[in-house]
């Protein structure tokens, strides 16, 4: 059979490389228990059901997405990239955790961004939901966002 037609260039989503401080950094060993309910993957002690946990790539802290109050779409996304917990969160663009009062968290992927690192920069946090450019790009093109090349631990 003939090869599939090429995807038009304007429909190819842009995938940013990991922040400079994370390039080549190995992922921490995931903790086997949830920091919130103390259950494990076989049981979430709040719901009584098994649930796959997310683990911080930097420190290894683990939690059930429901214990983190992540809605199901967000829970699915954070399992596809090198996720960071709130204690380790850094800016996806510059790679630092400086000025954490200036970090915005995307409501669709939970990545952190300094307001001043965005293009254009934002002076005040937006009211309500906020989505980063990585999450808005697929909506604009209709092309699903591919998982990061840096899988979850």
Provide a descriptive summary of the structure in words:
This protein is low in regular secondary structure. The chain has two helices and four strands. A two-stranded antiparallel sheet has the order 1-2. Strands 3-4 form a two-stranded antiparallel sheet. The relative contact order is 0.19.
Low-confidence stretches: 7-15, 143-153
What is the makeup of the main sheet? 2 strands, antiparallel
Tell me the strand order in the biggest sheet: 1-2
**Beta-strand proportion:** 5-15%
Tell me the distance between the termini.
Answer: 38 Å
Order of helices and strands: EEHEEH
Shape: globular
Structural class: little secondary structure
Task: Output the number of helix runs.
Answer: 2
- The number of E-state strands comes to 4
Helix-residue proportion: 10-25%
Mean pLDDT: 83
Task: Provide a quick synopsis of the model.
With 153 residues, the protein is largely without helices or strands. The protein has helices spanning 72-78, 133-141; strands at 54-55, 62-63, 103-105, 112-114.
Features:
7% strand, single chain, disordered C terminus
Summarize the helices and strands and which ones pair or pack:
Layout: E1 54-55, E2 62-63, H1 72-78, E3 103-105, E4 112-114, H2 133-141
Antiparallel strand pairs: 1-2, 3-4
């Amino acid at each position: 059979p003939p090869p599939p037609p090429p995807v038009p260039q304007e429909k190819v989503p842009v995938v940013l490389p990991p922040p400079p401080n994370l390039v080549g950094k190995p992922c921490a060993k995931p903790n086997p228990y949830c920091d919130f309910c103390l259950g494990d993957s076989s049981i979430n002690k709040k719901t009584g059901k098994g649930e796959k946990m997310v683990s911080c790539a930097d420190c290894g802290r683990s939690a059930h997405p429901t214990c983190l109050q992540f809605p199901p779409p967000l829970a699915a996304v954070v399992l596809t990239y090198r996720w960071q917990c709130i204690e380790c969160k850094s800016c996806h663009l510059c790679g630092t955790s400086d000025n954490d009062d200036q970090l915005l968290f995307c409501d669709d992927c939970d990545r952190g961004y300094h307001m001043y690192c965005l293009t254009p920069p934002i002076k005040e946090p937006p009211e309500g939901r906020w989505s980063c450019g990585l999450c808005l790009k697929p909506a604009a093109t209709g092309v699903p966002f591919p998982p990061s090349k840096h899988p979850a631990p």
